[in-house]
Design goal:
The complex is a heterotrimer of chains A (295), B (421) and C (316). By secondary structure, chain A is mainly alpha-helical. Chain A has helices at residues 2-14, 25-46, 56-61, 73-82, 84-115, 119-130, 136-150, 157-181, 185-192, 197-208, 210-226, 229-234, 243-254, 259-294. Chain B is α/β, with parallel strands linked by helices and 421 residues long. Helix content of chain B is 45%, strand content 16%. Chain B has helices at residues 2-22, 48-60, 75-86, 99-107, 125-130, 153-158, 167-179, 196-207, 209-216, 225-240, 252-260, 274-277, 323-333, 336-339, 357-368, 376-379, 382-394, 402-416; strands spanning 31-37, 64-70, 93-95, 132-133, 136-137, 139-152, 183-186, 264-270, 287-290, 304-315, 371-374. In chain B, the strands form 2 sheets. In chain B, strands 1, 2, 3, 6, 7, 8, 9, 10 and 11 form a 9-stranded mixed beta sheet that branches. In chain B, strands 4-5 form a two-stranded antiparallel ribbon. In chain B, 58% of the residues are buried. Chain C has 316 residues and is mainly alpha-helical. Chain C has one domain (58-312): MetI-like fold, CATH 1.10.3720. Chain C is 75% helix and 1% strand. Chain C contains 15 helices and 2 strands. The chains are: A mainly alpha (295), B alpha/beta (421), C mainly alpha (316). At the A-C interface, helix 1, helix 2, helix 5, helix 6 and helix 7 of A face helix 1, helix 2, helix 4, helix 5 and helix 6 of C.
């Protein structure tokens, strides 16, 4: 309790009107609600840890007890079966490909839709938006046939190019809304200084949209990392399997009748994205703050 | 300018990634067989056959390069569907349950006819029939599963119960169990398909082995008497609590847990569970496998057995130029050497010994069969199989009028396959 | 690249030259085309070709293996006549409604509080809210089942421990009346992160001066939230509404992995029906028709949303 008081006190000092003193009831209440919601988000993520050290029988009889001993067998077996090395490289190719193809395309399109509005760009916006309305199962078979035609089956590009097509509409919408919220003055100033359309975008507007870019890079990366369906359909060759496919291979082979091992695989599957997110999160914070100062 | 340079760099990397991604896998010199299967060939007790098959075949055939890809469930079925529809990227061989799904692929010309090549393989008639369609053979089924009752012998002993041989006895057993706080049946109704095994047997015991065959051949309606009687009995049991208070939330894996811990006493399902239920690391309960009881006055017999392919392989037309390699694989899949590694499935090949008591019991049930009926959802056309399981699943809702549900199903079948003649 | 940057001042020199205005417009147009090219290119190749194919298939009867036969609008008629489809449609519309009504206000509350009460505690909390959103769907569904499963699930285990009989045997995933809300709770948990991060980024863009001005006027934080911040992020909120609506119409992962659309079809969605028709029931034409319906509904909702905005008058 003292801890919270301390923090709240500090908050009262730093924020909103320099009102000094102890925290108000409403502030305390909001902090409590925020903590409860945060616990609701994070606690379920810890559930697999109840299972991962157990044997199957131990799990069957006492799923929620503390494990009798800490045994890494389940992790070891999951780890060996998943053979993460090769899968990791393939996954990285997909992720980098998806980010490099999605983010610049979406930023450029979002910029045009926000700052060069005319009847024809509005039409183009709807055309791009339509891509967002497509459920992936609807186009799975035609996409596979298309990839066959282009010789993209069994290549990482065959995964990240369609993935890009699925990602662009969403991120174009996000970029459009970000660019719209940016004031035009800076762009005007740059134009008077003699900057061209491309220069204004590259030197003024794109840097100002950094919060959106950081968000897009991180989330496209994580999304590509977690992809299962597109990779499953587009990749036939075991050597080209992504990490997520290898994990799914393993998890599907055991399923819930081998929950401890299944849970261990789930932890392995989630760990890289979680670490990436926690590291990347600093950038989001820094990115958004920088945006606020300049705006 | 620094920024321009970094943009150029990004574009170069982008191009590099694109090009790197587009280089297809290089072709190999040796004959290469691509096999898509379900399970990983690893040390798990349930995966011993596939491991022995993959490793043994490769060792015995150094001139063939075997690429085995484990895709799990439903990865395997989804992926096979896509490549079959597109007719590109097909594997040479894929794991298949045979039946109508394989038949659909055969009708579309995607499979490789191996009728002559596989004719001399010794195996049970049921297994052979399962991998055939319209008189042609497309693959092999080294393992064949039958449906029956797994029951917890310790619980039966504790309450002085004996293995039921009639439906009345079964109900008495269930009532006794219920009175003692033991759930009579585990099911796994959430997954849909597990509800079918019991319904097939109830229908058979009321209407005989021909009831379904006639309905399938469109000589009888799916809402005719035996189907309705079976459904009423099924729903009566649900209402009495034979499946516990929350059957529709429980997946097949949950049902296994109930059996593994002795919370439920019986499980009507396929003999593929012998490996798990006989594995001491999975359950410490003594389980046995018995045929589903008879219904006095009904037309079905205790020797009418429901069965389906447990593990099967079918070949596709892309393997037409390496038929020899494919046949060698199929024959090895049916070899005593490979099949002996399996711990819990009924082998179709003569001369393979059952590896544990439970599998032995299941084999005896299979051996006692006078009539084998294929699992309905493997035998009916795909357009009407999932709706069948959903119809049976709806019996678990106390509000469902089973007669109306069956009539709705009959109308669907009439629509898809044709009306009763 | 470099040369285009160098050439830019020359172009701009034309800005103040009235006679060359026409040429300037041409450059402006060219710039727009070049900038839209990658996005539109990707979509045309990898999206519109498959969509066009799907639209055609939706008028066919085919298993995807058999040669298709043209049957007009029969697939659509059959769909609207089926109780399963109507239930799926009702589910996704309810889902869209409740995600706008529940998830977006909740996301705004969290995002605003995190920004307005910026301190050491909230800066730690920020990291947490998005965590569930980065989990692959298979894991989300697995955790959801841990929570709601009968008997062994977290809720019923806790109920057992404390002897709450009323909660012990609640059939969260098997009762047709409860399954929607169980799934919705898990989906809210898994999907709300994006709304929070996105709104937070937008709220933080509000300049400090505006905040100080509100303070000088004597506004408290609630008033500041409702009368200053909310109107300023109304556009992002509408974007979120579109994203949630379309996302609901396409909803697949969480319900499919947790219940398979069951019991029977009580928690089904349009995308689950699409998948089942296409990949399980081998009615590929019918599946395509479901896809077309999802597409057209999304289009209708988005057009309605964007034109509502235009009528509402915005700050362009």
């Amino acid at each position: 309790m003292r801890n919270i008081d301390l923090i709240a006190e500090e908050s009262a000092i730093r924020h909103f009107g320099g009102r000094r003193g102890r925290l108000t009831v409403s502030e305390l209440l909001i902090m409590v609600v925020l903590i409860i919601l945060a616990l609701a988000v994070v606690l379920p993520l810890l559930l697999p840890w109840f299972f991962v050290f157990k044997t199957r029988l131990e799990f069957s009889y006492n799923p929620w007890s503390l494990p009798k001993q800490i045994s890494w067998t389940n992790f070891r077996e999951a780890w060996i079966a998943i053979q993460i090395g090769q899968g990791l490289l393939n996954t990285l190719k997909v992720c980098v490909g998806a980010v490099l193809c999605t983010v610049p395309s979406a930023a450029m399109a979002g910029y045009i839709f926000a700052k060069y509005r005319s009847r024809w760009t509005e039409v183009a916006f709807y055309v791009v938006l339509m891509g967002y309305f497509v459920p992936v199962h609807m186009v799975l078979i035609p996409l596979y046939q298309l990839n066959t035609k282009f010789g993209l089956v069994d290549s990482m590009a065959g995964v990240f190019l369609p993935m890009t097509a699925f990602g662009i509409p969403f991120w174009t919408i996000i970029y459009r809304s970000f660019f719209r919220s940016l004031p035009d003055d800076l762009a005007e100033a740059a134009k008077i200084d003699g900057a061209g359309h491309f220069d204004v975008f590259l030197r003024v507007m794109f840097p100002l949209a950094k919060p959106a870019t950081v968000l897009a890079v991180l989330l496209v990366f994580i999304g590509a990392w977690s992809d299962y369906l597109l990779s499953l359909i587009m990749i036939n060759n075991q050597r080209l399997f992504t990490m997520q496919l290898r994990i799914a291979q393993f998890m599907n082979a055991y399923g819930v009748d081998h929950m401890p091992r299944y849970a261990a695989a789930a932890v392995i599957a989630a760990a890289p994205t979680l670490i990436l997110y926690i590291v990347g999160h600093r950038w989001i914070l820094r990115g958004t703050l920088a945006g606020a100062l300049k705006g | 300018m620094l920024r321009t340079r970094s943009i150029v760099l990004v574009l170069v990397v982008m191009a590099a990634v694109l090009i790197a991604g587009m280089v297809p896998a290089l072709a190999q010199d040796r004959v290469k067989l691509t096999v898509w299967g379900r399970d990983l060939p690893d040390d798990d007790p349930a995966h011993q056959y596939i491991k022995a098959l993959v490793e043994g075949f490769q060792a015995a055939n150094p001139d063939i390069e075997l690429e085995y890809v484990a895709l799990g469930d439903p990865g395997l079925t989804d992926k096979v569907k896509v490549v079959m529809a597109s007719n590109s990227g097909l594997p040479d061989i894929f794991q298949s349950w045979g039946g109508s799904v394989m038949g659909g692929y055969a009708d579309a010309g995607r499979l490789l006819d191996l009728t002559e090549e596989l004719a001399d393989i010794e195996c049970s008639e049921a297994a052979k029939a399962a991998m055939s369609w319209k008189g042609r053979t497309y693959g092999v089924a080294p393992f064949f599963a039958v449906a029956g009752i797994f029951l917890n012998e310790a619980i039966f002993e504790k309450y002085g119960l004996s293995v039921p041989t009639t439906i009345e006895e079964l109900e008495e057993v269930a009532d006794t169990l219920l009175a003692n706080g033991v759930q009579p049946f585990a099911c796994g109704a959430r997954d849909g398909w597990p509800v079918l095994a019991l319904y097939m047997y109830l229908t058979d015991r009321y209407g005989g082995i021909n009831a379904f065959a006639e309905a399938q051949a469109r000589q009888r309606r799916f809402d005719s008497e035996p189907f309705v009687q079976a459904a009423l009995k099924y729903q009566e049991w649900v209402k009495k609590g034979y499946f516990g208070p929350t059957p529709l939330s429980e997946a097949y894996g949950d049902a296994q847990q109930l059996m593994a811990t002795g919370q439920a006493a019986m499980h009507v399902t396929g003999s593929w569970m012998c490996a798990q239920y006989g594995d001491p690391t999975f359950t410490d309960q003594p389980l046995g496998f018995y045929p589903f009881p008879e219904m006095p006055g009904g037309l079905g017999k205790i020797t009418d057995i429901m069965g389906q392919t447990d593990i099967g392989f079918a070949a596709t037309h892309v393997a037409v130029d390496k038929k020899d390699a494919v046949v060698r694989f199929m024959k090895y899949a049916m070899s005593v050497e490979a099949c002996s590694a399996e711990l819990g499935r009924i082998c179709s090949v003569p001369g393979v010994q059952a590896q544990n008591r439970l599998t032995q019991m299941a084999s005896e049930v299979f051996g006692s069969a006078e009539a084998i009926q294929f699992w309905w959802d493997q035998d009916l056309p795909p357009t009407i199989t999932a709706p069948l399981n959903e119809t049976i699943q709806s019996f678990f809702l106390p509000t469902t009028d089973v007669k109306m549900a069956l009539t709705a199903y009959e109308e669907l079948v009439a629509d898809e396959v044709g009306p009763v003649r | 690249m470099k040369s285009s940057v160098d050439a830019a001042p020359m172009t701009l020199a034309a800005t103040h030259d009235g006679r060359r205005k026409k040429r300037l417009d041409y450059r402006r147009l060219l710039f727009q085309i070049v900038f839209l090219l990658p996005a539109v290119g990707f979509l045309v190749v990898f999206m519109f070709y498959p969509i066009e194919e799907t639209f055609r298939t939706s008028m066919m009867q085919t298993s995807a293996l058999s040669p298709p036969t043209f049957i007009g609008f029969e697939n659509y008629q059959r769909l609207f006549a089926s109780a399963e489809f109507r239930k799926g449609l009702a589910n996704v519309l309810a889902w869209a409604f409740w995600s706008v009504v529940i998830q977006i206000p909740l996301a705004f509350f969290i995002a605003f509080s995190l920004v307005a009460y910026s301190n050491r505690l909230t800066s730690k909390l920020r990291v947490i809210y998005y965590m569930a959103s980065i989990m692959p769907s298979a894991i989300v569904a697995m955790l959801g089942r841990f929570i709601f499963a009968p008997r062994f699930g977290v809720i019923s285990t806790i109920a057992q421990r404390f002897g709450w009989a009323w909660l012990q045997n609640v059939d969260f995933l098997g009762d047709p009346n409860k399954v929607f809300w169980s799934l919705f709770a898990i989906a809210t948990w898994a999907y709300i992160g994006f709304g929070i991060v996105y709104l937070m980024a937008n709220i933080e863009q509000i300049p400090m001066e505006i905040r100080e001005a509100a303070e000088l006027d004597g506004a408290n934080r609630l008033q500041y939230a409702l009368y200053v911040v909310l109107p300023m992020v109304s556009y992002p909120i509408r974007i979120l509404a579109i994203i949630s609506t379309v996302g609901s119409l396409k909803l697949f992962d969480v319900p499919y992995l947790m219940t398979g659309g069951g019991p029977v079809y009580y928690s089904t969605t349009l995308a689950i029906i699409l998948y089942k028709q296409g990949f399980v029931n081998w009615r590929y034409g019918r599946a395509a028709a479901v896809g077309v319906i999802i597409f057209l509904l999304s289009l209708a909702f988005s057009i309605a949303q964007f034109s509502m905005q235009r009528k509402g008058g915005e700050l362009d």
